[in-house]
Amino acid sequence: FADLVLETWDLQCDRNGREHRTADMGCQQLVVRRGQPFTITLHFSGRPYEEGVDKLAFNVETGPCPIETSGTRSHFAVTDFPDESSWSAVVQQQDGSSLSVSLCSPPSACIGRYSLTLETSTGYQGTSCHIGDFVLLFNAWHPVDTVFLKDENERYEYVLSQQGLIYQGSRDYITPTPWNFGQFEDDILSICLKLLDTNPKFLRDQNRDCSRRNNPVYIGRVVSAMVNCNDEDRGVLAGRWDDHYEDGMSPMAWIGSVDILKRWKKFGCQPVKYGQCWVFAAVACTVMRCLGVPSRVVTNYYSAHDTNGNLVIDRYLSETGEEVQRSKDMIWNFHCWVESWMARPDLAPGYDGWQALDPTPQEKSEGVFCCGPAPVRAIKEGDLQLKYDIPFIFAEVNADVVYWVVQRDGSQKKSIHSSVVGKNISTKSVGRDSREDITHTYKYPEGSEKEREVFAKAERKTRSLREEDEGLHLKIKLSDGANNGCDFDVFAVINNNTEMERVCRLMLCARTASYNGTIGPQCGMKDLLNVTLAPQEEKRVPLRVLYKEYRENLTHDNFIKVVALLTEYQTGDIVLAVRDVYIQNPEIKIRILGEPMQNRKLVAEISLVNPLAVPLNNCIFMVEGTGLTHGQQIKELEEPVEPQAEAKFRLDFMPSQVGLRKLLVDFESDKLMGVKGYRNVIIAPQP
User: Fold this and answer.
1) Residues annotated as binding site for Ca(2+)?
2) What is the pLDDT of residues 290-318, one digit of tens each?
3) Rounded to two decimals, what is the model's pTM?
4) pLDDT attached to residue 231
5) How do residues 337-363 score in pLDDT, each as one tens digit?
6) Which of 459, 488, 521 is a domain's end point?
7) What is the CATH number of the domain that holds 381?
8) Could you give the number of structural domains in the chain?
9) Contact 297/338 with Cβ under 8 angstroms?
10) Which residues are part of a known binding site?
11) Known catalytic residues?
């Protein structure tokens, strides 16, 4: 027999991409999911392949020094009986000189970029030919894969959906911010693989790192560390929280992960400036979804940052409600992290499912700024000893807050204040633009027997008493929404629940604030020395907060913190109430003109009214949407936008992908920043 000569081959990127749900990554390369067969076609010249005469075998290799014992190299012959626990190849059909072969990885294979080599031999003669590279991803559709997720709608939302909503604002005014995850956009997959190859564990021991890439727990930990740059590890984002972002992008201005990841690659893996928690979480979510791990961004309102691990956050206020004696412990208005879905064979049964991963650099874990994966179930049950970093996240949703009022003589008096930490934990609903509340997955109902058991297990014998004073009750209410550019009213609502007259001093103070708990200058104040409450009486005391007082010091986060301190003269008791008021930006209006169809021009008319009493200068609109616009479109307005005037422009774009898509818009100017808007557009296929 003459030698078998391979003439051409076809990796069938299109067909395999459709079957493996990776077609949106483009057909320039073969991208497949582990444990699922993919088909390639071989064309021989001279004579066709003959079974029993010719032997065909394949070599797959990943990483710089592949070896069989560590799972980064496999050599396997074409066989009739594939073995599911290892790589296999089976002849599917033969048509003259063409041969279709189905290849399949085990569902526990290492993910990453592989090279594929074909070895042909007839008798003793053999040749070897490199027939291309492919990328192998985790497979949430395969029942044996450790990231398997049963529900198809959830798989679509958490692996395939390239756009979503991230919840911000305050507990009393939860706002959805649109985000373009864009995990299948051009070049994002190769950037995610580069991120894995830039991580210090890879640089220390390349073979060991590549051999552990079959494990989503390991990958999650690497991604959590690499999305921030705090370890001099060439991480993706630099964090900044001080409102000075002139040498980079304000964290509020981003509307997607694609721009951030592309900048990181373009500038030689230098950290991109700047991120805050939702940006870190969103970029980590993009990387995890891109690699095939089901992931979502979650937001915890009133999130505790407990630096000393005692599960108590101490805050110190003066008698006028000003913060004194700053402790490192903080309460963030909200904090975002990622949950990724995976099995935990490294732990006892019962901890599979959602795992919390937090890429925002806060505390070190095993010497590195990363956090997780922590089983959400373990956080709920108070199993603090399990891997990884459960005490820190347990504190974020459960710590007690104690407010101390520092008297003039320096003595401290504990105020009466009800529980605030870990409220309204939120994520986007599956298949809908609505909010799903997942607080119950992190904690038992407050005050329940089960909650007390968890606290005892977490080595907290008791929770500090939530003393609701039977006598006096204090709340802060907002009359209507607070709009940027306008004055607004807040009310201290005081209830005397006793049968005695009470005489009190009431301090009401408003200050600008950042979402991470940092306080700015005062922008409103009232001090009433003589508030008399008859038995069972309710009093409402208003405080008007003026735009002219807050406009200069409002941070990019748009928060004003209102503190009310009620001191009863007879007993000396102090009752405290705190409320974070979110100052609402104007609405961005988006009108779509034309019939939304693939590869047909559409026009978006985008506008915003300036609500402020001053002109807006240096106005910029940024627009992007996976499958709609090619990358980010930027429009700089030449003229200032006068008060109550409209900033407006028209954008031409040509949708490239069908289905439900989001067009995302961000508006920036000198006085109004980080204004977001989006519009859902359903793109019909070409007839």
Assistant:
1) 398, 400, 446, 451
2) 999 999 999 999 998 877 777 788 888 88
3) 0.92
4) 66
5) 999 999 999 999 999 999 999 999 887
6) 459
7) 3.90.260.10
8) 4
9) yes
10) 398, 400, 446, 451
11) 277, 335, 358
